[in-house]
Design brief:
about 625 residues, alpha+beta, D-Maltodextrin-Binding Protein, domain 2, 24 strands, about 25% helix
Length: about 625
């Protein structure tokens, strides 16, 4: 599923590039809690009858790791304080450091080679957010633990989580090296259609994650949207899947008029199509260009820019563009012309890396793409007509169309790439990108203006040339519902950002805006007490994770399995979900939501559920038995 919220990490359904994060990752930040200190005991015991201890590391120093959390988000602060108090039970003196929420994703959640290292000599990496082997790299942010990022669990194609949980996965910013060969297990899942064999492979991966603990898997949740009462959505809006937002979003009735304002607290970060990897940017960019196709709650392909079909053997797939797609212009006002299959084939080969010589065209180690790892699934791509191209896989894959390759993808003109290659940085900063001159009739809206920054805005105006209107009664691909003839139904669509969540909440409470994703402490208030507001809860495939830094600058606590397990034993997920997040999330123990058909509770080791004095003692024993640590009574 293409990201719809503050997500990072990859689309649902080694490697290189950062793409899998947006589709996989995102910045959380939807809840706050007033008066949070009252939840916690001053001595860190949280009511447990345990004697105080202090934890010391291998050189006799006190263990004082640092946890990064979101600034200006009371909920994130409350969770951080809860973790600090819980870890005090095993003698950890956790240091808390707030970071701007966008910085967590854009800067801190990444890694880099150590200054004296030569990346060319690495066994793997650098790729995406993963700089390479953990002992030769460091995280770019100086954190040991990090909260505030949610990651896509891909419940339709769970083997696409490999970008997080393999040693060379592009989203593996934290330096995780699995204790079991996850790459082979993911390959086993992809090489069979036998449900039992697929489940067995995933059981081992997700079970191992609950023991290796590259991150403490905290919670799963729905995403709650607060609409003005007269804003229409659709009957299927709360389901997991595409529900035709452009067609179904209007005020009072399906007719054109007025503006739509989304009050937001997370800004746009990137408009360079091949490297967009966060939900905040995708939501904005999706106004000015539709993607290829989407997948409905019934798992049906819904063609947007193009239709997609299996040629019959699940190894060759055919993609057919609609016949009236027109790019916009370059920075000088020259028209790029019609979107054709040639544009898609060029981008696939030379930007997403399918061609063997793709890197030769650019002045960087890899092509400027955050999706190279996804596109490694493709054996070859070729143009078979002006508006048709085919993708061939090395092996049959019946669920290929649900994978984060061409599902939800966008495409720049071939002529754009040719004008800027080999200078990847020039392409990223080109006026065609920053001013979105190239999008033409591809989206329901046209870019109007942007004010950058955390308190900025992104405004788009109704596109009078929107391609979809021509496909209601006749189409070379598939005709669409009559309502598309007049879509979209707002004159202007704006993301209006506030840097302070409390200010954003108060604005929406007082009547500003058409849509807002409220913090958890405001969900029930908006449901029950605020006039003219309707709250919808949508199925959410993202998991909230407290990541552990296992790279060279990570604390001994986070670089050792015993340290991570001891931490997970005492962090109380039930308090986080039920009290801090007001019961709007559910504790989880691995990287798959409990509603997924691939989740198997018997394969998972649970931590942090019903934390007792015995759990604390077990955690202390784990540390005592692990050579780097010393647990001392106070």
């Amino acid at each position: 599923m293409p990201p719809r919220g503050d997500e990072v990490v990859k689309r649902e359904t080694g490697a290189s590039s950062r793409r899998k994060l947006l589709q996989g990752l995102g910045v959380a930040g939807t809840a706050s809690l007033a008066g949070c200190p009252a939840l916690f005991g001053g001595d860190g015991s949280d009511g447990l009858d345990v004697e105080p201890v202090e934890l010391y590391g291998p050189s006799g120093e006190r263990v004082t790791p640092t946890l990064y959390y979101q600034a200006d988000d009371p909920q994130s602060q409350s969770i951080a304080q809860q973790v600090k108090n819980n870890l005090a039970n095993i003698g950890v003196d956790l240091q808390l450091e707030s970071r701007p929420r966008n910085q967590l994703l854009a800067e801190d959640f990444a890694s880099e080679p150590l200054p004296d290292e030569n990346p060319a000599a690495f066994e793997y990496g650098p790729v995406g957010r993963n700089a390479g082997p953990p002992d030769r790299t460091r995280t770019t942010g100086d954190w040991d633990m990090l909260i505030g990022i949610v990651a896509n669990s891909y419940p339709r194609t769970p083997d696409n989580t490999d970008s997080f949980w393999t040693r060379d996965g592009q989203a593996n910013a934290y330096g995780y090296v699995p204790s079991t060969d996850h790459e082979s297990l993911y390959a086993e899942f992809g090489s069979t259609t036998d449900p039992d064999e697929q489940q067995a492979a995933l059981n081992e991966v997700f079970g191992n994650l609950s023991e290796d603990l590259p991150g403490n898997f905290l919670s799963q949740s729905k995403e709650y949207f607060a609409f003005r009462e007269n804003i229409n959505t659709s009957e299927e809006f709360t389901d997991f899947g595409y529900t035709k937002g452009t067609l179904n979003r209007y005020r009072d009735q399906q007719s054109v008029g007025q503006d739509f304002v989304w009050i937001s607290t997370t800004p746009l970060t990137n408009l360079f199509v091949p490297e967009i990897d966060d939900g905040n940017s995708t939501r904005r960019f999706g106004l000015v260009s539709d993607p290829t196709y989407d997948v409905t709650p019934d798992n049906e392909i819904y063609p947007l820019l193009m239709d997609a079909e299996d040629a019959g053997d699940s190894q060759v797939f055919v993609f057919t563009l609609r016949d009236n797609l027109q790019f916009g212009t370059d920075a000088e006002g020259n028209d790029y012309g019609q979107m054709t299959a040639e544009d898609w084939v060029y981008q696939t080969r030379f930007v997403h890396g399918v061609a063997d010589d793709a890197s030769d065209r650019w002045n960087e180690q890899t092509p400027p793409s955050a999706q190279i790892g996804d596109y490694e699934q493709i054996e070859r791509v070729e143009q078979t007509g002006e508006l048709e191209f085919q993708v061939e896989l090395p092996e049959p894959d019946p669920v290929f169309l649900f994978r984060p390759v061409l599902w939800g993808a966008y495409c720049l003109p071939k002529a754009f790439y040719e004008a800027y290659a080999p200078d990847a940085q020039a392409a990223r900063q080109a006026e065609e990108i920053t001013q979105l001159t190239w999008t033409g009739n591809l989206g329901p809206y046209s870019f109007e203006s942007r004010t950058s920054g955390v308190a900025g805005s992104f405004t788009a105006s109704r596109n009078d040339d929107y391609y979809m209107r021509d496909h209601v009664t006749d189409s070379n691909v598939r005709t669409v519902d009559d309502g598309w003839a007049d879509a979209p139904f707002f004159e202007r669509y704006q993301f209006d950002n506030e840097s302070d969540q409390s200010v954003a909440t108060e604005r929406f409470r007082n009547g500003d805006g058409s849509l807002y994703i409220p913090p958890s402490d405001a969900v029930e208030e908006f449901r029950q007490s605020v006039d003219d507001v309707r709250v919808e809860g949508k199925q959410f495939p993202f998991i909230s994770v407290m990541f552990f830094n296992q790279r060279s600058n990570g604390d001994t606590l986070t670089r050792t399995r015993a340290g991570r397990q001891a931490s997970a034993l005492v962090v109380d997920k039930e308090t986080i979900s039920n009290e801090i997040q007001r019961g709007l999330t559910t504790p989880t123990s691995t990287f798959q939501p409990t509603w997924s058909e691939y989740y198997n509770e018997d394969a998972v080791t649970e931590y942090g559920i019903g934390v007792t004095e015995e759990d604390v003692r077990q955690a202390r024993d784990l540390l005592r038995e692990s050579e780097p640590f010393s647990v001392e009574s106070v």
